[in-house]
Amino acid sequence: MKILREREEEMDRKNYDESKYIQQHLANERTYLAWIRTAIALIGLGFLATTLHFTSPDYSYLNDLIALGISLFSLVVGLVTIVVATLIYFRNQKTINTQTFHSSFKIIIFMTTVVCLLLVFFTVYYFTF
């Protein structure tokens, strides 16, 4: 709450007129919601891996470990995605208002790496199962 209050006070002090850039702000909100959907899908993927594994009759220590690793990794990455998306949303909001917007390539590289790692984990899991 304190962060939001400070953000509102900063915007009041600088007298931002967000209505001048309404299309950009709406696009920023859509992008934020897309990142939230991505995070939910990543978390759901972790739960799916665990559910599929522990409902099968075959158990081995290695497969249990890999399934739990996939689940935990997906959960952590989903939560990190939510936090990073929120930070990027507020950064973009500020840069849109000040007309100093720079696209962020780091989040794209991060998410590409995460998805590739998840695919590797799933491949290892399914070939050892």
Account of the protein in words:
With 129 residues, the chain is an all-alpha fold. The chain is 82% helix and 0% strand. Helix 2 packs antiparallel against helix 3. The radius of gyration is 20 Å and the shape is elongated.
Alpha carbon gap, first and last residue: 47 Å
Count of discrete alpha- or pi-helical segments spanning 4 or more residues: 4
Kindly name the structural category: mainly alpha
Largest sheet: none
Number of strands: 0
Rounded Rg: 20 Å
Shape: elongated
Order of helices and strands: HHHH
Q: Could you list the spans in which at least 5 consecutive residues all have pLDDT below 50?
A: none
Task: Provide key terms for this protein.
mainly alpha; 129 residues
Provide a brief overview of the structure.
It is built from four helices and no strands. It has 129 residues and is mainly α.
Topology:
Blueprint: H1 2-14, H2 22-54, H3 61-97, H4 106-128
